[in-house]
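Office hours follow-up: a student asked to see two folded examples consecutively, so here they are.
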Amino acid sequence: MRASILIVDDEKEMLDLLTWILRGEFEIITASDGEEALERLRERDFDLCLLDIMMPGRDGLDVLKTMQKEKIDVPVIFLTARAETEDRVEGLEQGADDYIVKPFEPREVIARIRSVLRRTSRREAGERITVDGLVLDLTGRTARVRGRELKLTRIEFDLLSLLIRHPGRAFSREELLEKVWGLDFLGDERTVDTHVKNLREKFRTAGYPPESIETVWGFGYKWRTS
């Protein structure tokens, strides 16, 4: 069965171009604004959403926030203009899986979609990890602290699960980018710091020790073992 992709862009020419590029390999559904996109996402399951950031009314960042609030668990690749650097960074920090800069090459679009689909389709069947009251369900992709759910973004969950499955092992920021975001991710290593900061704050709010994610100064991070 072909992967299903929702393409969201307010420019008809861009929707037509992306549909033409992708229709031979994927099942394509389109939406021309943020409200329509959310309607489609609520109606059925998608394997991936290709989402334009700059749209009138409800923009892509707002759509992503609403998806997370409503627990619509669909990988997101943002479409951005070259000048929208701050929006790209904000989108990635909020949990987007990747971004594609306009104008783009058709091969790049397909390659990035394949990469995200490979990464997000991995599931550790039936595996659950419990550490001092923190329960990580790798199949259901949920995290709970003493029964209280932690609302994690897709990237936060993947980052946490990688660290917690390798207690005591120090990962460099570069290695974390490769393993969590993917080899072809073009973001800054500071993205890792931002996500660790967000995880620690969510730990703190839930009453779980934020220092469980330990900083290895000048290198990266590890899950504390004692």
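And the second, which I mentioned at the end of office hours:
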Amino acid sequence: MSAARPVLGVIACQRTVGIEPAQAVMERYIRAAMKHADAAALIVPSLPDLMSAVEVAPRLDAVLLTGSPSNVEPHHYEDEGGEGPFDPGRDAIALSLVERMIGLGRPVFGICRGFQEINVALGGTLRRDTSASAELIAHHAPDGAGFAEMFDHLHPVTLSHDGMLARSFGKTGLTVNSVHFQGVGRLAPGLDVEARAPDGLIEGFSARPNGAPVIAVQWHPEWDADTNPDSQAFFNLLGQAMRGEA
């Protein structure tokens, strides 16, 4: 390992461990990123009362916004209602971190909730019917499915011709896991579609607003990344972006 490896910030969620509040991120995200992007990593706590994105962003070479059981609060995209759980501390840090990292010209990558956060941070909206809409295929396993079964719920995506993902994966389509109840409603200005599900729902997007790439996917490449070459390609792209090679 090189002491000069880039440092990736991985956002944490507010969780409860026992009876105590905790800042936590599932280890699979950190391991997949550190191994396949060849990076060091730091966990970024979602404690906006004690820390701001302005303080932490300059110390990071890139940020990864992970998936989470929680949803972005609808008022952030000028909507109301919606079902929790919500994590307002994460909303505050994640949305401001997107803006700050872009301002510094540093890469921002997102997975699932992170994908949705980036769209919202840049002015897009979300839809909340991806498991129960007549317009869409099922984007989540049926109720009662076990944890591993949720990640066995698969569907194909078509990659945009000559997009960053198509070039990185070296193919025009993938089969991906699908574990989400929400998705993109209106795509934020400046984002380019990188992947679509068969029903047309956007599953990946990218941008290069200030030199460095912003790339996010709705699926979970961190799940079983060691056995999935396509997942490894996603994190390889993250590593390249952190080194200014993408």
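Two things to take away from it. The radius of gyration is 17 Å. The first strand starts at residue 7 and ends at 11.
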